[in-house]
Amino acid sequence: MTKTLVDIPIIDFEPFLSGDAEARQAVARQIYHACHEIGFMYLNPGIPATLINNLFAQTKLFFDLPFDVKNKLAWVDKFSNRGYVGVERERLNPDKPGDLKEAFNVGKEVNPEEISKQDKSSLIMNQWPVGEDKFRQTVLEFYQACAEAADKICQAFAIALELPESFFADKHEEQNYTLRLLHYPPLEQVVKPGQVRAGEHSDYGSFTLLFQDEVGGLEVRTADGEWIAAPYIPGTVVVNTGDLMQQWTNHEFCSTKHRVMVPSDDRVKRSRYSVAFFCHPNNDAEIACIESCQGENRPPLYPPISAGDYLLSRLQATY
């Protein structure tokens, strides 16, 4: 059974962005409680609404392209994490049929001319549709806006956990992030048993920013095992902490299962669009139990690991 009332905290992030030290502490305390109790919250991280609207418009135009055009941008290999993924190609819940969505992934844009020959051999490049310059420009502008917002959220997390303000930001400075555009097509046919738009899962990394439209369908599982709706709220972004942050904080911050269900009303005949910005630390950052998250009766639950090795282990387990 899914609740329809909003049980996820709505936090005004503006005082953190523009307020004094006391105001920032007050916001950080709210963020701590949200991350500790449910792992999800709504924030207004300062990304202009016009940019968000432009990105959604370009996202729709991209997914309206013929399948053959999009499929030319398909992932080169399963670990590249760049390019197009077709409907039902991904299965977030491995016990269920393929997800009823298509996606397009972008990472930090790099100029290959500025990379040494040795580095080029392992360089993973973004893939772009030919002739869609406005799409590329809008996506990269949005990526940078999200990266700047992520830096502020990193600061808030650090303050919430009684760490130096730059603790997380310093370990995310390489912008090892993935921007994922998502389209859930209208459904006219009967779906397979157990099939949903995005299967039950938790995110791998530090935290995620999620932008969604009014069609809805996102659900979050509480600690009691109840599924609650996480609807679109104008002027806000859904932010959730991921598995790596849960490990880093010794479960002080939780990583919560979530899913996107198939609507049971006329919305099933409408496209749903969303945009996820997945934040992951620098590959060489050491993920070791934070001092303020352990004690005499609370030893670290995990041995230290580099963020890069952690991500590779998760991808290998998934694929």
- What structural category arises from helix and sheet content? alpha+beta
Measured on Cα atoms, how large is the radius of gyration?
Answer: 19 Å
The portion of residues assigned to helices is: 25-40%
Number of domains: 1
Cα shape: globular
How do the strands line up in the largest sheet? 2-10-7-12-5-4-3
Q: What's the end-to-end separation, in Å?
A: 31 Å
Mean pLDDT: 89
Major sheet, described briefly?
7 strands, antiparallel
SSE string, helices as H and strands as E? EHHEHHEEHHHEEEEEEHEEEEH
Supply the CATH class: Mainly Beta
* Gross CATH architecture: Sandwich
Q: For the record, what is the CATH homologous superfamily label?
A: B-lactam Antibiotic, Isopenicillin N Synthase, Chain
Total number of helices: 9
* CATH topology heading: Jelly Rolls
Total beta strands: 14
Can you tell me the residue ranges where pLDDT is under 50 for at least 5 consecutive residues?
A: 1-5
Strand composition percent: 15-25%
